[in-house]
Amino acid sequence: MTPTPLDPMDLAGIDDLLSDEEKAVRGTVRTFLDRRVEPFVADWFERGEVDDVRGLTQELGALGLLGMHLEGYGCAGMSAVDYGLACLELEATDSGIRSLVSVQGSLAMFAIHRWGTEEHKQRWLPLMATGEAIGCFGLTEPDHGSDPASMRTRARRDGDDWVLDGSKMWITNGSIADVAVVWANAGEEHGGIRGFVVPTDTAGFSAPEIKHKLSLRASVTSELVLDGVRLPAEAVFPEVRGLKGPLSCLSEARYGIVWGSLGAARSSLDTARRYSIEREQFGRPLAGFQLTQQKLADMALELVKGQLLALHLGRRKDAGTLRPEQVSLGKLNNIREAIEICRTSRTILGANGISLEYPVIRHMNNLESVLTYEGTVEMHTLVVGQAMTGQQAFR
């Protein structure tokens, strides 16, 4: 029997663990990105602006990628592993494109799907699944990121209405969103932290775009300002109270990062591998030097381990046995190793590594944001530490 040729980017043969359907999903996403995004994304990053972002969102919706792991309401109802593979391919193109998809599906749509009323679901989810409506998720505040329980955004009752005042910061999709899921403190008498579905054309709502970023430049990032935003009684999520609501959404988004960060790592590693074979120094290819091969081997090893961990967590999610602590374990490991792969890949490219002619510096800069959003390394370390010891060390 003739052995299958070894794929240098799949040294462990992880593809053998995927079904034909899962490979088909991955291939469909890759084909779309190669045509629609790859030729333009370096320019978008350099300009800090995505051309026709609404059109792109609708194309992503037509492909079934928006809320793809949710059931009903026009969503594709695909598996967690399918979703993870899509996130990997999206982030192999650019973290900002993966963020667009994951904030739409795993934060805004998931929040409405899991906690909203039937009216919320019927009104918003079909439009969001097609990309006709864009959503954002307002939790982080200017002074409160890792400690959302201390949020200052307030919701008060005024007759039958709710009135929201406050601000949110670093909100993906904010200034292009049609609907925002906003978390606010309603006071103990009304259940503490509550979630609200806020149409962005509501009086008092504004979303100034954040400029001067050196990371996630191919992504819309905004502040949300809520100045006496008046909402009807039915705008609130009726049952969920406290941090359970937003944390359940964050766990969904973090799962996508477990996979997505590996896409940036894979792209950088493959770029470095190809470059090392083509680039000559001292009369032979860079790939022929032991120190270069050590870098490539170490990076490949960490990529393989991250892929196996992501796939294992995906299978657990599909089986209904995935715990938030396990998502933290995956996010902590995979983003930390992914950013190190990007940095090491940059060294193999030398000065060329800082050029947008290659994707490495773009991935590296993007992952500086992914490293700290949806939970910093420190916070996920303490989640894992608490799971191991039973001792809470956050304060």
TrEMBL record:
Pfam families according to UniProt: Acyl-CoA_dh_1, Acyl-CoA_dh_M, Acyl-CoA_dh_N
Entry GO MF terms: fatty-acyl-CoA binding; flavin adenine dinucleotide binding; glutaryl-CoA dehydrogenase activity
Domain Acyl-CoA dehydrogenase/oxidase C-terminal: 242-388
Family: Belongs to the acyl-CoA dehydrogenase family.
GO BP of this protein: fatty acid beta-oxidation using acyl-CoA dehydrogenase; fatty-acyl-CoA biosynthetic process
Coiled coil: none
Domain Acyl-CoA oxidase/dehydrogenase middle: 136-229
Cofactor(s) annotated in UniProt: FAD
UniProt KW keywords: FAD, Flavoprotein, Oxidoreductase, Transit peptide
Species assigned in the record: Pedococcus dokdonensis
Domain Acyl-CoA dehydrogenase/oxidase N-terminal: 19-132
Protein name according to UniProt: Glutaryl-CoA dehydrogenase
UniProt-listed InterPro entries: Acyl-CoA_Oxase/DH_mid-dom (IPR006091), Acyl-CoA_Oxase/DH_mid-dom_sf (IPR046373), AcylCo_DH-like_C (IPR036250), AcylCo_DH/oxidase_C (IPR009075), AcylCoA_DH/ox_N (IPR013786), AcylCoA_DH/ox_N_sf (IPR037069), AcylCoA_DH/oxidase_NM_dom_sf (IPR009100), Glutaryl-CoA_DH_mitochondrial (IPR052033)
